[in-house]
Design a protein that fits this description.
Elements (H helix, E strand, L loop, with lengths): L1 E4 L10 E7 L6 E8 L6 E3 L1 H6 L9 E7 L2 E15 L2 E10 L10 E3 L1 H4 L2 E6 L4 E6 L1
Parallel strand pairs: 3-8, 4-7
Antiparallel strand pairs: 1-10, 2-3, 2-6, 5-6, 6-7, 9-10
Length: about 130
């Protein structure tokens, strides 16, 4: 079981966590803040991070239509070597490349395709998240 702490400045604010995405080679990775989003089917990472880590966006695994507040957009789906969040690592996980506004406090989303691999408990009384492999 893994446990991490989270902070929110206001009770209505999104829960943010750090993720680490592994690159094509084992010695490359990037960490950045994401929003824990149970409404997102897929985990989303910035396009620049994917490119910096050596992923081929010219030949994505597939294109996926996503419904946003601004309508339907088509995003590239790639498989990343590994993604670590909430103290747990998942290997060979599909992510979408999504660029959030530069003014956003988060750079991506931690979606259900990561979260569903664990039993997740959010403890608001202690501002902690626990993840247990299923």
């Amino acid at each position: 079981m893994a446990r991490i702490s989270f902070n929110r400045l206001h009770p209505s604010q999104l829960i943010t966590v750090q993720v680490n995405v592994g690159g094509i080679t084992a010695n490359e990775s990037r960490s950045f803040p994401v929003g824990l989003d149970t409404g997102a089917t897929f985990t989303a990472i910035p396009t620049k991070v994917a490119l910096d880590l050596g992923y081929d966006l010219a030949n994505p695994k597939k294109m996926m239509p996503i419904l946003t507040g601004n309508g339907i957009i088509s995003l590239k789906v790639i498989t990343v070597r590994q993604l670590t969040a909430i103290g747990e690592t998942v290997e060979d996980i599909d992510v979408v490349c999504l660029d959030l506004p530069a003014s956003s406090m988060i750079k991506g989303l931690l979606g259900l395709n990561f979260l569903e691999r664990f039993d997740i408990e959010i403890l608001f009384s202690t501002n902690t998240i626990e993840a247990r492999p299923r």
